[in-house]
Amino acid sequence: xxxxxxxxxxxxxxxxxxxxxxxxxxxxxxxxxxxxxxxxxxxxxxxxxxxxxxxxxxxxxxxxxxxxxxxxxxxxxxxxxxxxxxxxxxxxxxxxxxxxxxxxxxxxxxxxxxxxxxxxxxxxxxxxxxxxxxxxxxxxxxxxxxxxxxxxxxxxxxxxxxxxxxxxxxxxxxxxxxxxxxxxxxxxxxxxxxxxxxxxxxxxxxxxxxxxxxxxxxxxxxxxxxxxxxxxxxxxxxxxxxxxxxxxxxxxxxxxxxxxxxxxxxxxxxxxxxxxxxxxxxxxxxxxxxxxxxxxxx
Length: 298
Ligand code: SF4
Ligand code: SF4
Description:
There is one protein chain. The protein has 298 residues and is mostly helical. It has 2 domains: 1-186, no CATH class; 198-298, no CATH class. The chain has 12 helices and 2 strands, in the order αββααααααααααα. The chain has helices at 47-60, 110-115, 119-125, 129-136, 144-147, 155-158, 163-172, 180-186, 196-207, 218-238, 255-264, 272-296, and strands spanning 79-81, 89-91. Strands 1-2 form a two-stranded antiparallel sheet. Strand 1 and strand 2 form a beta hairpin. The longest helix has 25 residues, at 272-296. The chain is globular and about 65 Å long. 34% of the residues are buried. Residues 1-4, 20-21, 29-32, 117-118, 120-121 line the site of one iron/sulfur cluster (SF4).
């Protein structure tokens, strides 16, 4: 998993397209390495111990060996430092570290390692290079440990609001680099405790193409949170569990709407017709909420 995009592991130049895994030479993400972790585990919680292990792994790494040695416990022997200054952390078996040869078969999870990527990394890849750089400016000053932490790296949460909104904000800000503090001061909405993926559908409808300024209002955040809570309860109360129905996430409807059903209303299985009925309810409620918001504009 980690640094799947180690292929970008080279000195950044003007053509360099950063990834969420490997944003540059100052830091990297290794949050999903190794694949077996206890729930809520973050490397930063055990920073000194992990740093010692990373140093040992890097020094002990025998690049020329082809022997297979499975990952044991919660640590992978192939996770180490990628640069001489010990700033970036990643997979020592990645092709980018081995003249194009993928050596990840040397651990039990090799296939999983090269195949998978987190949702946030996928969302990030949909952004243009200039937009990626804008969002990455919010992580300036983080080291590999804090950058790999869902608690300290705001991008993990922000990616959940969806590519469209992320692009709109970057456009509105002329892709001009900012700081975390300045960004959250300017957009207090994003300090919300709401789950972004569960609420991205509703927010996208409310903001549309030209109401970004609403995100600069803390009062709007409070109203949206209340709206989100109400509509979620309304759906939960209005649907009967149907254990035989298709999984919600497999229906061919708007992806963000399906996330709303699953993550906000807790509906994991539903017939397509029923989902469409709920969509009508949600869309009507959103239209009413939008109209109330419009009435507030002096
Ligand atoms: S957690 Fe996501 S961003 Fe971080 S290394 Fe893994 S795939 Fe990349
Ligand atoms: S083999 Fe590489 S990608 Fe897989 S868990 Fe180990 S360090 Fe991470």
